[in-house]
Amino acid sequence: MLIGMIRYAVPNAFDGNCSRTIAQLYTNPYFNDRFKIFKEITLQSFINQTCQDFVLLLYHSHLIPEDKKKLFIDLEKKYPFIRNVYVKDRNLIIPNDLKSDKMLTFRIDNDDGIALDFIEKLKNTAENTTDINFAINFPRYYKIKRIEKNKYALVAASIESNSLGLAYYSNDHKTIQDLGQHMTIKNKCPITYLKERCGLQIINGYNAANSIRQGEKIEYYTKAEIEDFLFKHNYAKLNLECLPICKEEKRDKSYNF
């Protein structure tokens, strides 16, 4: 079984420089916007996986307000692959009943999407090798940004240190989260890069690290067009109206197409 790890609302798992306090993580509009994206993008991506041999761990601060906690308990009841884990610090533990001699763990953010065969490809990679203690990564992915009510920007991106969908196949009792920052993982273990474009990064205005960078080619779509594009490229039917509108930045407008 594959184990997905989503740091839903806890302090930064890698260092003490948290961009938001615990209280801010549960304050609106931040919480409501992220929760809608999680349900309409992330969750839909997992519901429709071609391989259902996985569990998705959602990590929350133990200080989560009761009304917010109920939302996730309801999701756990509805979807058997979800398990909520409440932590007091940045230590994202694996429940004892899920631990095994060999583990394949992966991480994504709570606003990421994945292709329908993401789990299948990770599982096949692990099952068809004698290697162990190596990372698996999909360096090619899509970025999506809603820039007007019915206008979306799409970028076909590629970056070797991409953290979206990063996985670790191990027998050393470590998880993908234990390896730390995704930029430095290549210095800690071998990495197998898969050629498929299996990730979907949502640019929603809340994460400064996610942006359309200078030199990246942007394509523009209406809502119907981009949903059709993603469906034809092996993604679930996604409701992109859940995305906040983020105006184009000056660097976006400087391109010629």
C-alpha Rg (nearest Å): 18 Å
Task: Compute the number of strand runs.
Answer: 12
Strand content: 25-35%
Report the uncertain regions: 13-18, 251-257
Mean pLDDT: 90
Major pleated sheet: 7 strands, mixed
- Please identify the top-level CATH class: Alpha Beta
CATH fold call: Spore Coat Polysaccharide Biosynthesis Protein SpsA, Chain A
* Strand arrangement, major sheet: 3-2-1-4-9-6-10
CATH architecture verdict: Alpha-Beta Complex
Q: What level of helicity do the residues show?
A: 10-25%
- Output the number of helix runs: 5
Coarse morphology: globular
What is the total number of structural domains? 1
**Structural class assignment:** alpha/beta
| Element-level helix/strand string | EHHEHEEEHEEEEEEEH
How far the N terminus sits from the C terminus, by CA atoms, comes to 44 Å
Task: Tell me what the structure shows.
The structure is a single chain. With 257 residues, this protein is an alpha/beta fold. The protein has one domain: Alpha-Beta Complex (Spore Coat Polysaccharide Biosynthesis Protein SpsA, Chain A). Helices cover 21% and strands 26% of the residues. The protein contains five helices and twelve strands. The strands form two sheets. It has a seven-stranded mixed beta sheet. Strands 5-11-7-8-12 form a five-stranded mixed beta sheet. Helix 3 links the parallel strand 2 and strand 3. The longest helix is centred in the first third of the chain and has 18 residues. The protein starts with a strand and ends in a 25-residue tail after the last helix. The C terminus is likely disordered.
